[in-house]
Specification:
The protein has 89 residues and is mostly helical. It is built from 3 helices and no strands. The chain is elongated and about 35 Å long. The termini are far apart.
């Protein structure tokens, strides 16, 4: 009887000692979405209910990314990673 192999737990190679610039854009997006969702949830419970809109907007952004492959956050991250090009250069 063959022994089952463990599934790959990660869709991309992870180097724990590597810097964040080597992460794929999707991983950075998930990190950003998780952080902003957590912050919005904490703020909505501690400060004001209106901060509950932040996790809702993050969810819309994730749905947009899943359906189209693009979202405003991915555009910003790509621009930051590639270095902002100054006009005229």
């Amino acid at each position: 009887m063959p022994t089952p192999t463990a599934p790959n737990r990660c869709a991309w190679p992870v180097d724990p000692a590597g810097d964040a610039s080597s992460w794929p854009t999707t991983r950075v997006l998930f990190l950003l979405a998780g952080t902003v969702t957590l912050a919005g949830t904490v703020l909505s419970t501690r400060v004001n209910r209106r901060f509950g809109l932040i996790p809702a907007l993050v969810g819309v952004n994730q749905l947009l990314f899943v359906t189209t492959g693009w979202c405003p956050a991915s555009a910003v991250i790509s621009r930051l990673r590639n270095g902002a090009k100054s006009p005229g250069s």
